[in-house]
Write a structure and sequence with these properties.
- With 226 residues, this protein is mainly α.
- The protein has a single domain, classed as Arp2/3 complex 21 kDa subunit ARPC3 (Orthogonal Bundle).
- It has helices at residues 10-31, 39-54, 71-78, 80-97, 106-127, 129-132, 136-165, 172-204, 218-224, and strands at residues 58-61, 64-66.
- Strands 1-2 form a two-stranded antiparallel sheet.
- Helix 4 (80-97) packs antiparallel against helix 5.
- It is globular and about 55 Å long.
């Protein structure tokens, strides 16, 4: 999913760099309302978690591997505004310190994974919130679906950017087939990891799950019991 330098031309990189900057500015403004005494510490934890897990690749097909994008994890646990900032921090550190993703492509990577991915995951989770509020199994199922959809839609963002200014030499059809096909498989792995992570947090501290806030679901009732 990380785009490297040279895959798209300079004007396209600049365009999406501007889009990323505008999007993150909005997120910073909106995130202030969500950063309370529960969300702020959780934001630090999920950022560290996503950073660590993104360093671990799992095999998909011979010669291809994937890693957790983290969009659904952060969206469900700390909300979309804070979550987008968490993923952006991870991407910036990876690009600057580990050369994971090109600097000229940083804007596109932020748009795909931090903006498209996180907000897609949160939109799916909100649609499935009635199921998530029923019980832990419903929350786990919601997390799986949100993670799966997040990965596939984020990969489509890559395809759109390549269609606008692709400079990698591959045809658009080939890029579409490889990106969407492989990320459909990656989405399954992401869904399993996300479901397990969200389920573990909900089992211990359901009050820390952003998606459950403002409800009196069985999960929150149990979590508030002495």
């Amino acid at each position: 999913m990380h785009m490297s330098d040279g895959l798209v031309n300079a004007p396209t990189s600049l365009l999406f760099g501007v889009i990323a900057a505008i999007g993150l500015t909005i997120c910073v403004t909106k995130a202030r309302a969500d950063l309370d005494d529960k969300t702020a510490p959780m934001a630090g934890l999920v950022t560290a978690f996503v950073f660590a897990v993104q360093m671990i690749n799992f095999p998909i097909l011979p010669g291809a591997s994937g890693h957790l994008l983290g969009g659904a994890v952060v969206a469900i646990l700390v909300g979309p505004w804070v979550g987008a900032l968490c993923i952006s921090i991870v991407l910036v550190v990876q690009a600057l310190l580990f050369a994971d993703g090109g600097l000229t492509a940083l804007g596109m990577n932020i748009v795909n994974m931090a903006l498209i991915g996180v907000f897609t995951a949160y939109a799916v989770a909100r649609l499935m919130r009635p199921l998530a509020l029923r019980n832990r199994a419903g929350l786990v199922a919601t997390a799986f679906v949100a993670a799966f959809v997040n990965v596939v839609v984020a990969s489509l963002g890559f395809v759109v950017e390549y269609a606008i200014g692709g400079a990698g030499g591959a045809s658009l059809g080939t890029v579409f087939t490889l990106m969407v096909g492989l990320h459909t498989l990656i989405g399954i792995g992401e869904g399993i990891i996300t479901a397990a992570t969200v389920g573990a947090v909900a089992a211990l501290r359901p009050d820390l799950v952003y998606l459950l806030r403002g409800s009196r679901s069985p999960l929150e009732v149990r979590g508030s019991a002495p």
